[in-house]
Design goal:
Length: about 230
Amino acid sequence: MNAIANRNDQATLGIVASNLLTLVVAWWQDWPLALMLWPYWCQSVIIGWFARKRILALGRFSTEGVRINDRPVDPTPQTQRSTANFFTLHYGLFHLVYFIFLLAMSAMSGEPAAAGGGTQVIEPSFDRIQRSDVLLILGLSLSFWFSHRASHREHVEADLRRVPNIGTLMFVPYLRVIPMHLTIILGMALGDDWGRLLFGALKTVADVAMHRIEHRWLQGAIAGKPQPDAIE
């Protein structure tokens, strides 16, 4: 049990460190809030990718409380595929909207330009985004990929030892979407500096909370404890 706790502590520190690294890079490069959101958007897509793989990798699972077309369903391979496909469509549409919104935010994050009558306006432009920014975003996203791939393998191994609720697994990744909602609503009003701090704090709290929840399930499975969502 101590080894499990140590791995969990190391994983938590890794989550905090990766989020702080992104925040440090954003401050170092003087990124506007829109640019800082890109590596986190990539991380959220990566989470969705591995969540779908996790659903499809389930051996046994519970469908308690899960309804399709307003009808309860049985834990069958067809239900498993339907759930994975629904999650992919719904989660994907969320992130497609975010992608379009971030493109607009990035284009509008340039310096104000003078218009007629001395009015200051922001002209849509991607000129401020440098190749180095793109490379840094890809590098941060790659680090997220490797960290979540390692967690995915551990979670799949634990899932095979228990009977998780497939509905719960489908909705857990949406915990990562909440900070984006709050940042878009509040961060823009606070400006880039406070917006970066707000998003960094919200994202780190959400990441750590989600990891703790998954680790609790994992620890119970390894210890052979009965799970609250298991089929008796």
